[in-house]
Amino acid sequence: MAPRPRLIAGAVGFLALMGVTGMAGAVEFDPFRSQAVDRDRGDYFAEAGAPTLGIDSKCNDEDECWPVIRNGQGEVLREYGTEDVALTLAGARYRDRAYLLAKLLPEDDSTRVFLIDNTGDATSVDTAFTRHFDQGGPLSLGDSDTPALRDLNVTPEENLLALTAEGLLTITPAGEVTDRRPTPATLTHGRIQNDLDGRQAVIGVDTNNEVWLSNGQQWHRSGVRLAERGDRAGVLAAHPAPDGTTLGVVYRYVNPFHKGLYVMRAGPGLERPQGGPVLLSTERNVGFDPAIHPTDKGYMLLATDSSNDQRIQVEVPKDRLGNLPRPEAGSFPDKEWWTTFWAGGGVQYLGWQANSRVKARGHGAGTRGDNPLDLLFSSLGGETLLEDLRAEVAELQRAVGI
Fold it and tell me: Cα(275)–Cα(247) distance, rounded to whole angstroms?
């Protein structure tokens, strides 16, 4: 995970050690007046009456439990043994149907991958997927290349939509690739999400940190580039618009004093991408596990404020996407910091591995993303390194107003 408030404390401690004081108050850019809420993307589907489907468990009086697949009415569609393991690989909710792509690990150590809907209809999925999810690594499908899988979704036509490092593939459960939409650049991360009516939206980040958007047919630049050392897992969301454009939301971390939530829109009919920051804060850390969906007035953005362990909503009017307010120049420093300062025992570069662990919400929630960021540091020494240190101290002083 990108450095948390302890990084700020360490930096301020270093400045105090150097005799620099006078820290300014927190700075926040919040033009649409964010609010704390108990809400998530699933509420968008629930309020429209979309069916649900998921893996649950049943237990007997002896506390023996086993996995089941249950729909939103509580009906058990599939039931397995106490030694079996069932895992969710992907799922999609539409106005009148819900789908679950599941992996079953029976007691005999075989592996099955299958697609099931909320009525109980199920279809086995080709062994290429079975091998991928059983063994990990690249996705191998017939004559296609073997790029790494970034995300999966299920279409209303009961096909699989696979986002790989090299593009978007539409694949039948039998393993036939029926459509390919190559990406303009190799993707390192991405997500596929749909609306109630079956439209698809894709957001991805390439190896040069650029964010791309797609409506499932065409790829478009979003106008947003992430910082080299910012988070990637658990910070992306997308939603399709009826006009064929795609909306995206991303948490962008530059440094401890420049981090927050960005919205973007791109696609057919737009001369250039729209969007920008809608919530930046030097104190709060808002942006993990984001979501976006339409409202009567515009678009609702949701994200976790990890500083206060709560969900935050920002509603952006539709007519403001092309003309968003901008933060005051100089309010948030743009330089990406590579140095972390700590007081005590001398000043030195530190080495650690920061992990971005994003918790899923709801029943059976687990870790949805884990993104190791290798932060490269070495002992202080040499004129070049000292010059970098002085430059970053000066940047820090400007950021906190001292």
Answer: 9
Angle at CA of residue 301, ends 296 and 303, nearest 5°: 150
- The DSSP result for 347-367, as a single string, is -----EEEEEEEE--STT--E
| Cβ atoms of residues 292 and 265 within 8 Å | no
Q: What are phi and psi of 358, to 5 degrees?
A: -115, 120
CA–CA distance, 164 with 137 (Å, rounded to integer): 12
The amino acid at residue 141 is L
The token pair at 174 is 């039998």
What is the total residue count of the chain?
A: 402
Q: Report CA torsion sign: 39, 40, 44, 45.
A: negative
What is the pLDDT of the chain when averaged over all its residues?
79
Average pLDDT value for residue range 226-248: 92
Reading the block at residue 210, the tokens are 């650029």
Q: How confident is the model at residue 338 (pLDDT cuts 50, 70, 90)?
A: low
Condensed to tens digits (0 to 9), the pLDDT of residues 304-336 reads: 998 889 999 999 999 999 999 998 888 888 877
Q: Are strands 200-206 and 187-194 parallel, antiparallel or unpaired?
A: antiparallel
